[in-house]
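Supplementary Data S3. Sequence and structure tokens for construct A.
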Amino acid sequence: MAEFINKWLLDPTVGKIVTALFAIIILIAIVRFIQRLLSKKIKDTDTRYRIRKSVSFFGYLAAVFVLTIVFSDRLGGLTVAFGVAGAGIAFALQEVIVSFAGWFAISFAKFYKPGDRVQLGGIKGDVIDIGILRTTLMEVGQWVNGDLYNGRVVRIANSFVFKDPVFNYSGDFPFLWDEITVPIKYGSDYNLAREIFSKISNELLGEYSQRAKSAWEDLVKKFLIENASVEPMITMIANDNWVEFTIRYVVDYKFRRTIKDKMFMRILEEVDKNKDKIGLASATFHLVETPTINVKLDN
């Protein structure tokens, strides 16, 4: 027994395994120390997250480099064994492999990045972490109206980028087109209504229009796309019940609901100031009572 233990301890392969484990433990300790040190020094959340992910990535590379050096003299003999085992592993872990390939594509093809608002596999939310196998979202919508967090954290396999469309609300153009409709009674001052809506749009959306114009110009240079107008647009149609104004505008994807609230508030204020000239329309239903019917029967 003692002879077996001595032989086992003196085995070069065992020594290499112990060396590799010891080196990996030291690397893990160094990576965690650097991450904690940087977390205390860096206050910006986005910068701190990116540096932590970079440190982890270089830690993985260092571990692979150490293992390659330690087992360099045995890699040649293990090539055939790895080849046979690799086929079985690839079949059994095909979803994991595709997810890893998805992480590689996300990292270098720039499908999205932490902080972007995306829709993956029918789930919409803000990207809060991109792992090697999964992307983590803070979900918005569902039972909560508007583009607000519902408190649910969702983890989606990175393989989705190869299977389903990836909707990015904040990638190359971090703005969305939105619109509201305002029904106006027939007989109102339509020119005054258009003037009021234009003034409110420029007041609340002027900053977004300037920023969106610059971002759209960069998009036109990058893709084959028309040079669309990002200025607020006001159109009018007449239907059976009222005249309907539509205000179409560009807004930051995170403030769509907030801007819509401010737009309606300002519109109601201005209409109240000019209620003798402009009236908001609404659907009304008049219920008519059935007239009394007298029935006289002759005997």
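Construct B, processed identically:
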Amino acid sequence: MINEDALLPADVLANLPGTEAVLGHAVAVDGERWRRALFLRRPAA
């Protein structure tokens, strides 16, 4: 089992990307596809 509270070694921490690198990622999403999918799964009135 993974100990989520375990500290990472200093060399690992030193090589992790910063917040900007992580938050700067973008993912292209087909918005129309998801709107259709959500519409088709809406509860019946």
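The chain is about 45% helix and 0% strand. Residues 3 and 14 are 20 Å apart (CA to CA).
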